[in-house]
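Can anyone check this?
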Amino acid sequence: MSKLKGKSALVTGSGRGIGRAIALKLASEGASVVINDLEDEAAAETAEAVRALGAKAAICTGDVTADDFAERFINTAIDSFGGIDIIVNNAGYTWDNVVQKMSDEQWDAMMDVHTKAPFRIIRAAADFIREAAKREAEDGQAQCRKVVNISSISGLFGNAGQLNYAAAKSALVGMTKSLGKEWGRYNVTVNCVAFGLIETRMTKALSDGVDDLVDVGGREIKAGIQPEMIDTIKSLTPLGRAGTTEDAANAVYLLCIPESDFITGQVLIASGGLAL
């Protein structure tokens, strides 16, 4: 039985990596999905994969930090699928530096994508959430909706060289707990997933120490990790490996299904035991 049949899900940053895996997992369980990416081609490819699973897909490309994005994103779901059931705030990246070398631009970029963008999306959804909950309560047909914010173990425990990223991800945890208290009255659960090392293009091993640059909204961001660092992280992880994007998606999925309807304001750590 498809546990998310008839549900509408929105996933930011779902053109590739963890976001794509989340979109495909939700679609495989029957959800219609709004796909987002900076690049039209990446979004289109994920949408095609969603449809190949027999689910519906809509596309809302663009930078999640843009002033007009949140309203467009929410309206895409309402116009395409008639409502909102699941919001996954996944889009993000890292832009690391030690504190004495970190610029205001680096700090602001992490806050904008990991904290401000999710806040704006949640705020843009508020009117629909409140009105839908009121209507369903009057009809005696209350439905549980879900918000899942993607944090990191860096946001829980800190990480040298990631002051900006860790602060932004920590703020997202606070936002999750506060919104859980605000939106419980509307039958919405709000939770976080904090990942450890997950294999993506941003965390792949560097080849011969050569930097791999990824364009993020016009910024060239260094991607990849030194192989020695990856080996160290794996050795500190009780399960002895990095997580796959499918591992990440499965963790998010757990917080989207009816079995988690009484869980809210929590942080699920998916790190293979790295955070123990």
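Reply from J.R.: I decoded it. The longest strand covers residues 145-152.
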